[in-house]
Amino acid sequence: MFRYLNEELETLSRAQITELQNKRLKEIVAHTAKNSPWSAARYKAAGVDPANFRGLADLHKLPFCSKKDFREQYPLGMSCVPRNKLAEMHMSSGSTGTPVVMPYTLADLKQWARCMGRCYIMAGANPGDTCQITPGFGLFNGGFGCYHGAREAGLFVVPTGAGNTVRQIKLARDFQTRVMVAVVSYSIRIMEILAETNQSLPDLKIGIFGAESFSPGMKKRIRDGLGIDAFDIYGMTETGGIGSGMDCPAHEGIHMWEDEYIIEVVDHETGEPVPDGEFGEITVTSLTREALPVIRFKTGDRGRILTREKCVCGRTHLRLDTISGRLDDMLIISGVNFFPNQVEQSLLKVPGVLPNYQIIIRDDHGIKSLRVNVEAEPGVTGYMVEKQLKEDLGFSPEGDIYKPGELPRSEGKAKRIFYETVGEENKNEGGK
Ligand code: DLL
Fold first, then answer.
1. Each residue of 119-175: pLDDT tens digit?
2. Residues 6+ apart with CB under 8 A from 327
3. What is the pLDDT of residues 231-279, one digit of tens each?
4. Per-residue DSSP letters for 187-203?
5. Which of ligand 1's atoms lies nearest the C-alpha of 254?
């Protein structure tokens, strides 16, 4: 029932994973120290001697890196290979507009294809299946990562890219799409247009969704709405793109590919590791990348390790809980700390509430307040929404109920968080 792209590597014993990570960590530290002046200077400043580096036992001595480093080193200051060895690049601009660039050699593209190919096969895709790739093909890593992986898994690619939902649906019907990849909120858009045009996608069985907050309530809506199995795929520009991990058909956590990456969860402020089961900042080290392997990259994502035990699917790679959000999106309102995806989870408990919402944080001279605008079917009242939010968050924000289709839609990542400062122009950050 459970299938693998590379059974041997996906089911290594814990001791074998540790041994492989130890060997690869030593190699990657030596590679970065030798080929990147930027890395060499950082090891020196941190008192790490690459020649005497002991592997996992010394992991905690390595300095962290973050998006800030990528931005300061734009365009290729962190690269470990000469420009003429590069084969591709991707870039994300995030909410601040300053670019983060990830260069790839041909070997890196193979590494990406291996990771992403595993995800497809893990989800149940079979060689020859039609795979419709709806994330954008361009600087965003989503489209191309899905493409490279689909080649590895032997799928028939329908590379629609983002947008034109009516045509997406026609192509999915005409070419019998069985596997579809999408940014989470785009799958909602597809569901809406299907309902409006009174159509269905009878061949679609597997949905692979990610790139933004994905609460359990949202997963259920998408599963039930499309009548498919829905998978939560994780990855980011800095670790080489989509597909560093995904949940398996047991849906008991996101398997992170531990032969390719070391995953740590650390305290956001102190950088100290937190025990499995506790929340912290997900931190990633790339073990097998050539052009720009990140070492202890602090992702800014809040999450936790659920387990390192073997899964019912046979895979042994550790499992992360659903990502709870960006640490810098944590909200403190009326003395209560919470993340936007808790608002999402709460809203979706109310029958008739639709998965299109906006969270508006208003700062009135240091006093923060929250508004939640949400689309809902006729019959849903503000009181019903307030009551649920009060029950789950401990206070009830203000907000309005909108008719279906009234809130703006996006073709890429949905913009859901808006900041307003009283007395200043709207900043309107967020959305990641
Ligand atoms: O969003 C890669 C991707 C594309 C993943 C398509 C899945 C599907 P970036 O644009 O660099 O890359 O954004 C990475 O998006 O740090 C998280 O904050 C968020 N993110 C990615 N996957 C998930 C997920 C792509 N499954 C940033 N759940 C990450 C929650 C996610 N957040």
1. 999 999 999 999 999 999 999 999 999 999 999 999 999 999 999 999 999 999 999
2. 268, 281, 300, 301, 302
3. 999 999 999 999 999 999 999 999 999 999 999 999 999 999 999 999 9
4. HHHHHHHHHHTT---TT
5. 26
| Superfamily designation of domain 1-324 | ANL, N-terminal domain (3.40.50.12780)
Ligand 1 atom nearest to 184, measured from its CA: 8
Examine the pLDDT at 429 and tell me if it is beyond 70: no
Buried b (16+ CB within 10 A) or exposed e, 283-299: bbbbbbbbbbbbbbbbb
User: Ligand 1 center to residue 246 CA distance, Å?
Assistant: 11
Cβ–ligand 1 distance for 212 under 6 Å, the answer yes
Q: Is 135 in the pocket of ligand 1 (CB under 6 A)?
A: yes
373 lines ligand 1 (CB under 6 A): no
Cα 355 to Cα 337: distance, rounded to the nearest angstrom: 22
Fold of the CATH domain 330-430: GMP Synthetase; Chain A, domain 3 (3.30.300)
Question: What is the token pair recorded at 308?
Answer: 């390192």
Q: In a mutational test of the pocket of ligand 1, which residue from 104, 209, 236, 281 has the highest number of ligand atoms less than 8 Å from its CB?
A: 236
CA neighbours closer than 13 Å in the CB half-sphere of residue 341: 21
d(C-alpha 185, C-alpha 175), whole Å: 23
Any idea where the domains of the chain sit in the sequence? 1-324, 330-430
Can you give the pLDDT at residue 431?
Answer: 38
Domain 1-324 matches domain 330-430 at the CATH topology level:
no
Sign of CA dihedral 211, 216, 218, 219: positive
Distance 365 CA to ligand 1 centre (A): 33
- Residue 103: CB within 6 Å of ligand 1? no
Backbone conformation region of residue 12, classed left if phi is above 0, alpha if psi is from -120 to 50, else beta: beta
Pocket test for ligand 1, best of 208, 254, 263, 301 (most atoms within 8 A of CB): 301
Q: Report the separation in Å between the CA atom of 33 and the middle of ligand 1, taken as the mean of its atom positions.
A: 29
In terms of DSSP bridges, do strands 229-236 and 206-210 run parallel, antiparallel, or are they unpaired? Answer: parallel
Rounded to whole angstroms, the Cα distance separating 262 from 248 reads: 19
Q: How many CB atoms lie within 10 A of CB 307?
A: 14
